[in-house]
């Protein structure tokens, strides 16, 4: 029998009862389907939120940190997002979004029925994930706002249902424009960034309202798959997707065909600006965050608020000058590139190569690991590199790296103007500005200030030789010479050690300790003669406070970094006090005389290279410093409006240059400051900081009016002249000195 006829006979054999049962079953299934669809569309399957929850929703928004000249330095965030207002969004950005994501956006009320049916049939019933989500912009916003939960095999059905109901609430509670702004502020763009404003700044380094049409199309194109269409990682994918967006804009008459033809031929031109990695002030931002968090915590406790530095979009305004910061970074890089190569060459010599290997072996043995080889990334000035390195290779690389710190503060109010904490924050986050190392000769002005407070004066002559009966530790000068007597000012200018120790032995140690403590140094100073030469450890940060007191007339000023913190709604959470916390630490006359002596250092002494070699003519006082065996090189300089401290050294003072040609303060640290000031004195915006020093008051006008050197005391010279015959060379030298003195006297009289 024909099969068709067979089934037809079966159907005809159904009784009336069977037909009734079949009809009831069909109607029942249809009713259940309608009920399920109604419940689905009504949002009864998914989570629900009250109107209050929706209205009070806020995105986590990154807090932004700005320099004093309004440059964005970086952000603090749990989600990297900067919210934009609707009025900041260009029309063509909105048009690109609607044309690509939800063409009937302005017609529906949160749910597009045609898309819902497609989702029900293809995505839910048939499980075809490639058919698309079919969600409207409003539904996508609902998903972005509250996320999705896991309900097993029913996850899509339940989550979609909840999003439909939430979308309908959103349409009732917000205007279409407000929904668009909310949506564009919630969408993720990959690379841990959220929102159109942040994406615009990341990929095009501009605010969203400055985007061009083709740039807006790139960002809207990323919404489909933010990694696959990332224009930095996959430019060919992004270009293809951008042109799809432009085509959609043409399809819905937002742009003309000629515009499409022109724009679609343009290449993607990025100006990638990652403000969270390799910024110009990473070390500074790390310090600012600690301080800002303390300020916000105190504000919350006082006012019963709950501001969050990583979620509430605070605006943190700082004291840093972005231009000086750039000059400082460039100076550090320029100097360290050159000196790094010199250090590497030194340690290729057999003598130093052997010493280095011994240090590596000691470090390796302390780790108690095997010398395995693995791929490792390491820092170089040509960019980070990846290579197969053993543990000992890694130790060697780290040991031979030169590090540097650079800090500039305003001595009158303590504002930090430049802060370079190291060579690379990502690979070497240890902050060199806060690291403590031996101060070397940059300590001497602190001791000399105590001398001035105890009756010394710049023209007081100090013997440049040790007493014959002196026992124990004996200092020597850098030049290895001794003899004669130097004025206090000349001894400091030439950074002579023997006169410095003689001053140390004469002034009360308690007075030195009192000044040291008043200047807020943390390390305890010990009463040893070697202390005079700067064997105590201190940081760049601390030394800047000390030199600021010379520059401002004798006051301690605490460095500050934050001028204002403002909440997203405009509430001012913090304003820096106009007069910073300070107290007098030395007499004004002491500070004035120290400044005069330290100007002599720059013009005639160890800092003269700033003028002669680097051509920096700005008014400056300062001091170089070289620690034992050239382990660290320091340079401290200042003006009435700026104090700059720089220091260079390896991570351990066991690694160092072998001579002062490369390792002294004047050869290693001074050039960093010099390179930055070369640019400052050509910069009209910054040069005005470097005003001349105030004229010396009349009561101190002759404080520096003396010869640098004489052979002995007047009594000594008297007896020396009587009892010791002079050689021809000595007679000639004395004749020349007398001639020089006569000439100077004539010059003073105007002859």
TrEMBL record:
Q: Mind telling me which InterPro entries this protein's record contains?
A: Beta-lactam/transpept-like (IPR012338), Glyco_trans_51 (IPR001264), Glycosyltr_51/Transpeptidase (IPR050396), Lysozyme-like_dom_sf (IPR023346), PBP_transglycosylase (IPR036950), PCN-bd_Tpept (IPR001460)
Q: Which GO terms describe its molecular function?
A: penicillin binding; peptidoglycan glycosyltransferase activity; serine-type D-Ala-D-Ala carboxypeptidase activity
The record's keywords, sorted A to Z, are:
Carboxypeptidase, Cell membrane, Cell shape, Cell wall biogenesis/degradation, Glycosyltransferase, Hydrolase, Membrane, Multifunctional enzyme, Peptidoglycan synthesis, Protease, Transferase, Transmembrane, Transmembrane helix
Chief site of localization: membrane
Compartments, as annotated in UniProt: Cell membrane
Q: Record's Gene Ontology CC terms?
A: outer membrane-bounded periplasmic space; plasma membrane
**Comp. bias (Basic residues):** 740-751
Q: Which residues form the Glycosyl transferase family domain?
A: 75-249
Question: What is this protein called in UniProt?
Answer: Transglycosylase domain-containing protein
Q: Give the source lineage, highest ranks first.
A: Bacteria, Pseudomonadati, Bacteroidota, Cytophagia, Cytophagales
């Amino acid at each position: 029998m024909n099969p068709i006829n067979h089934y037809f006979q079966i159907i005809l054999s159904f009784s009336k009862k069977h037909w009734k049962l079949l009809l009831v079953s069909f109607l029942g299934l249809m009713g259940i389907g309608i009920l399920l669809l109604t419940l689905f569309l009504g949002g009864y399957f998914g989570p629900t939120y009250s109107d209050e929850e929706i209205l009070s929703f806020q995105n986590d928004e990154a807090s932004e940190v700005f320099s004093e000249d309004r440059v964005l330095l970086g952000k603090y965030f749990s989600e990297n997002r900067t919210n934009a207002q609707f009025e900041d969004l260009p029309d063509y950005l909105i048009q690109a979004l609607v044309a690509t994501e939800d063409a009937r956006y302005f017609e529906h009320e949160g749910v597009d029925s045609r898309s819902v049916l497609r989702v029900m049939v293809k995505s839910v019933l048939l499980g075809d994930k490639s058919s698309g989500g079919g969600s409207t912009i409003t539904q996508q916003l609902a998903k972005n706002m509250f996320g999705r939960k896991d309900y097993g095999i029913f996850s899509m059905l339940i989550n979609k249902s909840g999003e439909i109901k939430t979308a309908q609430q959103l349409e009732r509670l917000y205007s279409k424009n407000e929904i668009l702004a909310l949506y564009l502020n919630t969408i993720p763009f990959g690379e841990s960034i959220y929102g159109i404003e942040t994406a615009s700044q990341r990929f095009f380094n501009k605010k969203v309202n400055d985007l061009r049409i083709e740039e807006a199309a790139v960002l809207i194109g990323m919404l489909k798959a933010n990694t696959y269409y990332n224009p930095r990682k996959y430019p060919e994918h992004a270009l293809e997707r951008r042109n799809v967006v432009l085509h959609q804009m043409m399809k819905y008459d937002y742009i003309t065909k000629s515009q499409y033809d022109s724009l679609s031929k343009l290449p993607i031109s990025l100006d990638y600006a990652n403000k969270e990695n390799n910024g110009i002030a990473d070390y500074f931002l790390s310090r600012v965050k600690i301080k800002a968090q303390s300020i916000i915590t105190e504000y919350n406790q006082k006012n019963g608020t709950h501001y969050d530095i990583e979620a509430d979009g605070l605006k943190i305004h700082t004291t840093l000058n972005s231009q000086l910061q750039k000059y400082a970074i460039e100076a550090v890089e320029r100097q360290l590139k050159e000196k790094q190569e010199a250090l590497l060459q030194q340690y290729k010599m057999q003598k130093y190569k052997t010493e280095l290997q011994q240090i590596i072996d000691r470090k390796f043995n302390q780790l108690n690991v095997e010398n395995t080889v693995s791929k490792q990334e390491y820092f170089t000035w040509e960019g980070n590199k990846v290579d197969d390195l053993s543990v000992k290779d890694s130790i060697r690389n780290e040991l031979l790296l030169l590090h540097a710190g650079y800090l500039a503060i305003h001595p009158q109010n303590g504002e930090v103007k430049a802060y370079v904490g190291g060579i690379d924050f990502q690979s070497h986050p240890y902050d060199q500005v806060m690291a403590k190392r031996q101060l070397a000769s940059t300590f001497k002005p602190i001791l000399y200030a105590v001398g001035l407070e105890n009756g010394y004066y710049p023209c007081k002559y100090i013997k440049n030789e040790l007493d014959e009966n002196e026992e124990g530790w004996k200092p020597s000068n850098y030049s290895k010479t001794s003899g004669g007597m130097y004025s206090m000012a000349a001894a400091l200018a030439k950074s002579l050690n023997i006169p410095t120790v003689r001053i140390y032995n004469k002034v009360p140690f308690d007075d030195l300790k009192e000044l040291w403590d008043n200047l807020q140094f943390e390390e305890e100073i010990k009463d040893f003669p070697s202390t005079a030469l700067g064997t105590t450890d201190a940081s760049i940060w601390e030394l800047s406070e000390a030199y600021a007191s010379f520059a401002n007339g004798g006051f301690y000023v605490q460095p500050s970094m934050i001028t204002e913190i403002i909440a997203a709604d405009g509430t001012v959470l913090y304003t820096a006090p106009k007069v910073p916390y300070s107290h007098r630490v030395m007499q004004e006359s002491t500070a004035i005389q120290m400044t005069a002596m330290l100007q002599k250092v720059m013009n005639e002494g160890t800092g003269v290279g700033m003028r002669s070699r680097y051509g920096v003519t700005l008014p400056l006082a300062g001091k170089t410093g070289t620690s034992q065996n050239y382990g660290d090189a320091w340079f401290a300089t200042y003006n009435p409006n700026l104090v700059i401290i720089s220091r260079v050294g390896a991570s351990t003072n066991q690694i160092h240059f072998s001579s002062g040609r490369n390792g002294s303060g004047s050869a290693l640290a001074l050039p960093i400051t010099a390179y930055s000031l070369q640019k400052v004195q050509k910069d009209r915006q910054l040069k005005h900081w470097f005003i001349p020093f105030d004229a010396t008051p009349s009561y101190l006008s002759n404080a520096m009016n003396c010869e640098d050197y004489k052979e002995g005391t007047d009594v000594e010279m008297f007896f020396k002249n009587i009892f010791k015959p002079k050689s021809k060379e000595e007679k000639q030298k004395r004749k020349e000195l007398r001639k020089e003195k006569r000439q100077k006297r004539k010059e003073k009289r105007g002859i």
